[in-house]
Design a protein that fits this description.
Layout lengths: L17 H11 L6 H8 L3 H18 L3 E6 L2 E6 L4 H7 L10 H13 L2 E2 H8 L4 H9 L3 E6 L7 E5 L1 H7 L24
Antiparallel strand pairs: 1-2, 3-5, 4-5
Helix pairs in contact: 1-3, 2-3, 5-7
Length: 192
């Protein structure tokens, strides 16, 4: 290893093609695989990574595999095919997605469409206390505390997380459907 530091990108292993390396990364990554990070790690063009992941997604879909590659939360992830999810959940019930109550969905919608919101802002829109639902959403990692508003009492600002995007199968907040009866007044979507 000599003088090589940990920041050096390993690049593609000698003689390896991009496809199996990306498959291995998809299997190993706990978070969605971001094309830019993979390209940098492997020393290849980002477009090559993106194109190869899309080819893999199409191949798995065409071959009727038990898994698929999906674009979600700003990256790509290997997931169980939807038609086999019940079988997997039968073996691992603890991996079942969190079932959201109507109140939780409403609060998530307020936060997602506004990009961020305080408890008081959410309660003003919904007309009811939301403290306990916010605690559950925080516990499940669907929202996070993003800082404090420069206002009296310095209220906590909540924002959605990457886990929120994954839960709803969204690549970014820009993928949210337009609100009924409103023009697309959504702010520029960031990472979450």
């Amino acid at each position: 290893m000599g003088g090589e530091g940990p920041s050096r990108s390993p690049g593609l292993p000698e003689g390896a093609s991009l496809r199996p390396v990306l498959e291995a990364l998809l299997l190993a990554m706990p978070e969605p695989l971001r094309t830019g990070e993979a390209a940098s790690l492997l020393g290849v063009e980002e477009r090559a990574v993106s194109d190869t992941l899309r080819e893999l997604a199409e191949e798995y879909r065409r071959d009727g595999r038990g898994f698929q590659v999906v674009a979600v939360a700003g990256g790509f992830r290997l997931v169980t095919s939807p038609e086999l999810a019940r079988v997997v959940l039968g073996m691992r019930p603890e991996s079942a997605p969190y079932r959201l109550s109507g109140a939780a969905r409403e609060i998530l919608a307020v936060i997602a469409y506004r990009r961020e919101a305080t408890r008081a802002e959410i309660e003003a829109i919904r007309g009811v206390n939301c403290e306990s639902v916010l605690a559950v959403l925080l516990e499940h990692g669907l929202i996070e505390e993003r800082g404090r508003r420069e206002a009296p009492g310095r209220p906590i600002v909540y924002a959605t997380t990457t886990r929120f995007l994954e839960h709803f199968g969204l690549n970014s907040l820009a993928d949210l459907p337009p609100l009924p009866g409103a023009g697309d007044e959504r702010a520029d979507a960031g990472e979450h």
